[in-house]
Design goal:
The structure holds two protein chains of two kinds.
Chain A lengths: L8 H7 L1 H5 L6 H9 L3 H12 L2 H7 L4 H4 L12 H10 L19 E5 L3 H10 L5 E5 L8 H4 L8 H12 L4 E3 L7 H6 L4 E4 L5 E2 L13 E3 H9 L9 E5 L3 H12 L4 E5 L11 H9 L3 E3 L2 E9 L2 E14 L5 E13 L2 E4 L3 E2 L33 E3 L2 H4 L4 H20 L10 E6 L1 E3 L2 E2 L18 H6 L11 H10 L5 E5 L9 H5 L5 E4 L5 H5 L13 E3 L9 E5 L8 H5 L5 E9 L13
Parallel strand pairs in A: 1-2, 1-4, 2-3, 4-15, 6-13, 7-8, 7-13, 8-9
Antiparallel strand pairs in A: 5-14, 10-11, 11-12, 16-23, 17-18, 19-23, 20-22, 21-22
Chain B lengths: L37 H15 L7 E5 L3 H4 L9 E4 L5 H11 L4 E7 H6 L2 H9 L4 E7 L2 E2 L5 E2 L22 H8 L3 E6 L3 H13 L3 E7 L15 H7 E10 L14 E5 L5 E6 L9 H14 L2 E8 L6 H4 L12 H4 L3 H11 L1
Parallel strand pairs in B: 1-2, 1-3, 3-4, 4-8, 7-8, 9-12
Antiparallel strand pairs in B: 5-6, 7-12, 9-11, 10-11
The complex binds flavin-adenine dinucleotide, thiamine diphosphate, iron/sulfur cluster (3 copies) and magnesium ion (MG).
Chain lengths: 597, 351
């Protein structure tokens, strides 16, 4: 087997499980270290470079980083990455003068951004300081997209949202509210250098079963949440059924409780392990005494004298195989559950009624636009898509990443360059050694369990619709939680020519992830030499070049290394070193060969 | 925080042994030896062997003398009994302890200085008595703890870090053991855990005196060019003659090896040591042949390793002396000390 090529920037990037899992590749351990040092503003700004909305995301991010966290391989729960992001936002000082600024002169290029959600805002964030004239057209009277219209204020307060949107608007972005774009053809006739479609996936799915058309009290989840957000809807019945068990359902049930419902049931078709909602959203709903009922499939709405009185469900029994997949199912009974209102939260779709068939933008057979996965360009030159509008509903952090990528494409497009000419990521490594038994990071393993977010008392939180439930971390919680991070970006870097094969590193490693072994043909044969090879989580096996004394190789299972630095500390020749890896991602303003604004 | 204590961490899917204990239950305090010291690797191999044999740490006794090697008792099996004794005197203390309680598992830890310089007589007599223990001699050719003076195992002509070459011939502990009656004699290298771990297991299971002479380089004072106990020298002249694997009584013995390749030796506990001979004509049950092999290797500078000699048939000290099987602390006082009258009667019988 060939020695591992660690010069590929992806090699060490992948070792940082959280950063690799984050769609925008937020440098998590680096910002956690800044928080640990009390440098909150710097931690905020570092976050902002990649994810643009640390205050928002520190509350409501889908946090794909957390399930990926390395910590889960030795501990029950991941580092509270998202909560720590909020810590950076909560405790930052005034950073306005350190944000990208409105340029003195524009470059004369005009970009139309449709929809004022996180995707469009990210494009504007990247392009406006470079001199692009960005105009956002928004249908509604407030900006923010679903972050404003659907994510309830008790999870994301309006002032937190507005503050971060204002940072971008202050870069000289023109926001036109109450301005739906009604025709793509018409827009294209105007004088725009590029168009970005960030209109989201605005259509909530309906449930076509008997009785659907007959009553007023059946609501489409995302439309209902929007009408609550804009105060058109101020009340709901006492007994409410939510159909579906995704994240929208969780927001619907909790909102209902704040509008006067006393009994809220979330009706799920399948058993709990198949739920789409994140664990923490389920927990938060259950804490508010929402009842989640499994194995009930909606059959019909029931009315009396034109008034909704309940719903009939088929109760279902499932057969599961050992792997937990459903292999069979049968209806065991019909059950009627009384209710005053029903909210349908069974999914969203893209809808582009305003894009004419002959606008030159191709849609596939499911009416989804055909978008390039790298450049985010549609089949029409100069028209780009991003966020939920591109590939269907995702989440905020994906919308942000799409925005960054689309901004690079728009810039290339305006500069007349090939869109795929994108400056690749770079990885800079610098030694973390300060001296004997002294490292530039907290290498000690702290076995503290994850800190639990404090919540506002139940009675208190139901009094007002916009009382934020989560209180943020206390000083003690911050101090403990930062130490739980393993600093996976401080990498073990090996210099084979220095190794004297004394085995000190192998002996000291607390998780047994190193071995010195004869060269072998394939990875499996090499892994056999490890006392603890787990071969999971998509992590690699590091293989060194041949060692000078015996010609064997050093191998390391990247999956279970805790980045404790003990191997480097015990190595007599510094063949192992701990080096901080700094991933450099090049955004639109930092593309090779482009004139910097 | 920066810290250099090895944290006790159990991975999620880490195996437990037959006692339900984890690898970390066999660890000890963080080593204070120099980074890269061979002794730490020996410690790691001992930890692994005890874990894999599912020996209850509280049933083990670690005894050592003085030296870096002797300090290592602190770095593993935290729950075991132990005594750091006087320089060179570990064998007597171990002999006494075994006389008092033969039901525990005895491990002696020593260095070449502790055993071959100041403690030579002590070690020789423990071997002669076939005391039932595993004796690890962590051999680096120098007194590491006192900053690297040559010990009695330093080879003639070996160069020190500074100063004149060694002018005395080396005492070879394997040759010595062959001549004074040890019944299990092995040599290994701290850098070869594949060989050392099974060899330690076999030594622990052997009834009688088991010596393992482990080349265990001193990185600070004897790892330079011209030293014959350095990592580089050992890797260069390393030669495996016999590989020993311990197979517990319960495991079915795999009959996959060809006859002649593998030599099974049955132990007192019903387990088996499987010897895989890498030098075809070598018979590790033949004391004279073993002596010949060791002497021949001197000429080529080869470091011959593996289980070089074994004799399972010899009685150990306990048996020879017809000693009490019960630990002395479990025998009622009245039985231990039957009283003045009984003593008088006994003395009378000798008159
Ligand atoms: C109930 C609910 C809860 C959610 N919770 C979370 C969460 O906790 N965390 C998370 O990460 N994600 C969450 N999401 C998903 C997240 O909100 C979206 O993925 C994200 O907002 C998508 O961003 P976007 O920029 O693509 O579009 P959107 O945020 O959907 O914004 C699109 C904007 O375009 C406007 N628009 C549409 N058509 C036109 C037009 N023709 N002209 C002008 N304007 C137009 C819309 O009014 C809207 O303001 C949730 C979604 C829902 C429905
Ligand atoms: C009676 C006595 N004499 C001398 C010493 C000094 N002394 C301490 S350790 C040591 C040598 C240890 O050498 P070795 O057993 O090879 O151990 P190493 O440190 O090399 O592992 C000596 C001479 C002592 N402690 N006690
Ligand atoms: S940093 Fe080194 S010693 Fe620590 S877990 Fe990783 S490989 Fe093992
Ligand atoms: S501690 Fe250093 S010299 Fe020793 S085996 Fe490990 S890498 Fe090689
Ligand atoms: S002085 Fe030598 S023997 Fe002692 S700890 Fe250091 S390397 Fe090991
Ligand atoms: Mg010594």
């Amino acid at each position: 087997m060939k020695p591992t090529d660690t010069s590929d920037p992806d090699y060490f990037h992948k070792v940082v499980d959280c950063q690799w899992a984050c769609p925008a590749h937020t440098p998590v351990p680096a910002y956690i270290r800044l928080i640990a040092q009390g440098r909150y503003s710097e931690a905020y700004l570092l976050n902002r470079e990649s994810n643009v909305f640390p205050g928002i995301l520190g509350r409501v991010c889908d946090r794909p980083c957390e399930p990926a966290c390395r910590r889960t391989r030795v501990d029950e729960e991941p580092v509270a990455i998202c909560r720590l992001k909020r810590v950076a936002a909560d405790h930052r000082g005034d950073i306005t003068d350190q944000l990208p600024k409105k340029p003195e002169n524009t470059n004369g290029k005009r970009i139309a951004l449709i929809g004022a959600g996180p995707a469009s805002f990210t494009v504007a964030n990247d392009l406006a300081p470079m001199g692009y004239e960005c105009t956002i057209f928004e249908k509604l009277d407030k900006p923010g997209g679903l972050m404003r219209s659907n994510i309830p204020a008790f999870r994301l307060p309006e002032d937190v949202l507005m503050e971060e949107l204002d940072y971008i608007l202050n870069m000289g972005v023109d926001l036109k509210l109450g301005s739906p774009v009604a025709s793509m053809q018409a827009l294209l006739k105007e004088d725009w250098d590029a168009v970005f479609v960030g209109t989201g996936a605005p259509k909530g799915k309906d449930l076509e079963i008997p009785g659907r058309q007959d009553a007023a009290n059946i609501h489409i989840g995302i439309d209902w949440l929007e009408s609550v957000a804009f105060e058109h809807t101020k009340a709901i019945g006492k007994q409410v059924l939510i159909i579906g068990v995704g994240n929208t359902a969780m927001d619907c049930c909790r909102t209902s409780l704040r509008l006067g419902a006393s009994s809220v049931k979330v009706m799920a078709r399948k058993p709990r392990e198949f739920f789409k909602a994140s664990d923490w959203e389920l927990e938060d709903a259950e804490e508010e005494n929402v009842e989640i009922i499994v194995n009930h499939s909606p059959k019909a709405f029931v009315h009396e004298n034109g008034k909704l009185t309940g719903m009939v469900f088929e109760q279902i029994e499932y057969d599961l195989n050992l792997a937990g997949a459903i292999t069979g199912q049968r209806v065991t009974a019909d059950v009627m559950i009384p209710c005053d209102d029903v909210i349908l939260a069974i999914g969203q779709e893209n809808a582009f009624p305003w894009i004419e068939e002959d606008a030159g933008i191709e849609f596939d057979k499911w009416d989804v636009p055909v978008i390039d996965k790298v450049t985010f360009e549609s089949t029409k030159r100069g028209v780009f898509f991003g966020g939920d509008a591109a590939f269907g509903p995702e989440n905020i952090i994906w919308a942000v990443e799409h925005g960054h990528q689309a901004a690079i494409s728009i810039h290339n497009h305006c500069e007349g360059r090939v869109l795929t000419e994108r400056t690749p990521d770079e990885m800079a490594l610098k030694s973390a050694k300060m001296g004997m038994m002294e490292w530039r990071y907290s290498n000690a393993y702290d076995d503290a369990p994850r800190r639990k977010m404090r919540h506002v008392e139940l009675v208190e939180r139901f009094k007002k619709l916009d009382t934020e439930v989560e209180l943020g971390f206390s000083a003690e919680q911050i101090a403990t939680e930062v130490e739980r991070c393993l600093n996976c970006d401080v990498h073990t870097v090996f210099e084979a020519p220095l190794c004297t094969e004394c085995d000190a590193c192998i002996d000291v490693c607390p998780v047994e992830c190193l071995a010195i072994t004869p060269v072998a043909e394939n990875e499996d044969a090499l892994r056999g030499a490890l006392s603890a090879s787990e071969n999971g989580n998509g992590q690699s096996l590091y293989v060194s070049s041949e060692l000078p004394l015996s010609g064997r190789v050093m191998i390391k299972d990247e999956n279970i290394c805790l980045h404790c630095g003990l191997c480097a500390e015990r190595c007599p020749t510094a063949a192992w070193d701990m080096q901080e890896g700094i991933l450099q991602i090049h955004y639109a303003d930092d593309q090779a060969g482009s004139p910097k604004a | 925080m920066t810290s250099f204590r090895k944290p006790k961490i159990q991975r999620k899917n880490e195996p437990l042994n037959d006692l339900g204990l984890a690898r970390v239950d066999y660890e000890g305090a963080m080593s204070t030896l120099c980074a890269g010291c061979g002794h730490d690797s020996v410690t790691a191999c001992l930890t692994k062997a005890f874990f894999e044999l599912s020996i209850d740490p509280a049933k083990a006794v670690k005894v050592s003398g003085i030296g870096c090697s002797s300090k290592t008792t602190n770095y593993f099996l935290n729950d075991a009994h132990g005594a750091n004794t006087v320089h060179g005197r570990m064998p007597s203390v171990a002999t006494g302890a075994i006389a008092a309680n033969s039901n525990l598992i005895y491990l002696g830890l020593s260095g070449d200085g502790d055993s071959l310089s100041i403690g030579l007589g002590q070690m020789a007599h423990a071997m002669r008595r076939n005391v039932n223990m595993l004796y690890m001699l962590e051999n680096n050719g120098v007194y590491g703890l006192t900053k690297g003076q040559f010990s009695a195992s330093a080879d003639l002509g070996s160069l020190p870090k500074k100063g004149a070459p060694n002018e005395y011939p080396a005492i070879d502990p394997v040759a010595l053991a062959l001549s004074v009656g040890a019944t299990f004699i092995g040599r290994s290298f701290s850098g070869d855990r594949k060989q050392l771990v099974p060899l330690i297991k076999a030594g622990l299971k052997h009834k009688g005196f088991a010596l393992i002479d482990v080349i265990s380089p001193c990185v600070s004072f004897n790892d330079h060019k011209g030293s014959t106990k350095s990592y580089a020298h050992t890797y260069e002249y390393y030669h495996q003659a016999v590989h020993a694997d311990y197979v517990p009584p319960t495991d079915e013995i795999k009959a996959s090896y060809d006859e002649g390749d593998v030599m099974p030796i049955e132990l007192h506990d019903g387990g088996i040591i499987q010897l895989r001979k890498l030098d075809q004509n070598y018979d590790p049950r033949d004391r004279a042949a073993a002596f010949q092999k060791v002497m021949d290797s001197k000429a080529t500078q080869e470091i011959v390793t593996g289980l070089l000699y074994i004799d399972e048939t010899q009685p150990d000290m306990h048996e020879i002396q017809k000693m009490e099987d019960r630990p002395l602390n479990e025998i009622p006082y009245s039985e231990l000390n039957p009283g003045a009258e009984k003593l008088k009667a006994l003395q009378g019988a000798f008159r």
